[in-house]
Amino acid sequence: MALNAGLACHGLRFGWPGEQGDDRILLQAVTAWFQPGRVSLVTGATGAGKSTLLHLLGGLLRPVAGEVRAEDQPVSRWPARHRDPWRRRVGMVFQHLALVPDLSVAENLLLPLVPRGMKWSAMQAAITRQLEAVELGQLAAKPVYTLSGGQRQRLAIARALVGAPRFVLADEPTAFQDDRQAARICAQMGAVARTGVVVVIGSHDPRLRNASEVDDRWHLAAGRLTAVGPPQAAP
Amino acid sequence: MSGDGGPRWSPLAVWAAREVQREAGRSCLLFAFLFLLVAIIATPMLFSHALAVTWTRWMEQTPHLVVRRIDAGGWAPLPAEAAVHYARKVPGALDPTPRLWGVATGPAGPVTVVTAPADLPAEGLPGQRPPAPGEAVVGRAVADAAVDNHLVLEQMDRVTLAIVATFPDNSVMVTHDLVWVAPPDARRLLGMLPDQASDLAVRLFRSESASAVAADLAAAFPWPVRIIDRDTMTEGLRRRAMGKGVAALMLSLPALLAFLWVMTGAVTGPAGRSAYWGVLSAMGWTTADLVRLQVAKALLVGMPALAVGLAVACGAVFHPMAAAWTAFLLMGTQQLPALALDGSGAVVMLLQIAAVVGLPFLAAVFLTTLRGVEGAARSTMEAGQWH
Ligand SMILES: Nc1ncnc2c1ncn2[C@@H]1O[C@H](COP(=O)(O)OP(=O)(O)O)[C@@H](O)[C@H]1O
Ligand SMILES: [Mg+2]
Predict the structure, then answer these.
(1) Partners of residue B387 in chain A, C-beta under 8 Å
(2) Is the pTM of this model over 0.90?
(3) SS3 B70
(4) pLDDT of residue A5
(5) Where are the domains of chain A?
């Protein structure tokens, strides 16, 4: 595999406004490489900056220093007019989901597809496929506000995947799920990664930490991201 | 985009329609105020344009110059044949025509007495037979004041006439105080001899030569004359046509457009949408996509509003019943010609109005969206609601 493939960050530094004092910098010098075809898990205590890191990787925030490279392109340095269309290649599962509650389940999945100039039939097929994958096929016409927390989160996952992204950034994707659904989501992420996609999951969910689908493990603490050795391989 | 079998609408346009429906309250508000604004702006514009067209048509029937003989007591009758003879000597003065007309006192005040179809507006005469001696064709105001279909006029003499017809209502601006009589009755009434005329109408080859020809004419007659040009003759009618209401509305146009700008910004701008726009831009919607979406929504609401507003304005100006009210509101009078609008004039007019309202509207949508989107993604991120 080419070394420049996937999603990489070099010396990424970020602090929220008002927290610029040296010790208040959230991410100090984060360097990592998330490879295509593999599921990478970023763990860390709450408040460690997992969500912030995912937003930096997805081009929703700009680093103070360092850069994010996607397939060897310095996307974090791009002006908005190049970066916004690039985001179509990113599927983001937000920790707080960011669904549009008054729209139906299917319409929420339509949103990322509308500006892409796809055929209606292709959009319909993609939406149906993703809803089936997250077991929401029966609820397509329901408004989102009638869904349970777990259903909403699965919808957010479906929305991240519906546009066939090259980079999937999932923030706590199993937070509201029972064990069966959590396992299914792990399997889904693994399957997506097998198609050559970069999958980065930020989570403190122990069910994910021990999942066999996770290929690479990273730990975020005190503003630094360190690679964690593979879990004890099953004997 | 061509769907295979599915609807062939661009997904963005379909989504725009969905959002118009989703924001039903705001859409209705936008529709209502755009429609009102178009109607308010279009009505006086259409009205004054139609007046101008009608006006020009009427002007074309008016002679370029009129020669009157004057003496110590004011104006005097002129000998018709001699006047024609002198006028013919002036190059550029065409068709000198003696006219027999004057002012007489009717039951409800002064009326204008005329004798020849050439002195009448064309729309006053559809198939009208000239009155025989003892008969009169009269304007609306004169007819209303007449008793028992008989009209008594007084000037140098007293003449009683039977009203045989009334000028049609659509010519009322020019005919309302007009009385058309046979020449013998006019002579008796105005105290003129058989060869005398009230004045001499002259046509010009080019209307720009009016002042030069007027000077030559003045020199050509052996008696003192006064020469009146078309503008002076029609001054009173012009003043009647250009009401204060029209002028006031035209003056308030900048204020109306400023209102349009502010309202559009408030209704179609980022207020209440910036979180949503933030979500969309996080999913790969570009600023251009969002602007296109907002403009498509604006067109979906604005075009019907424009159409309905223009239809209402057309009704207010051209529908006979509504037109009387419009005239009253805009000009303080219900006496109004049947307004005419030529085909190409109407199209130009509608395009003008569409431009006057539509372009600032779209510009406002465009700019507020552009400005709103810039901040939307960042401010939503920094509001921290997705962490
Ligand atoms: N929008 C924001 N504005 C200011 N500070 C923020 C914002 N979002 C997160 N933070 C701060 O950044 C730190 C890390 O947050 P986050 O990335 O959500 O951590 P994690 O996802 O690991 O729990 C926290 O201390 C939080 O207070
Ligand atoms: Mg988080």
Answers:
(1) 51-52, 95-96
(2) no
(3) strand
(4) 84
(5) 35-61+79-228
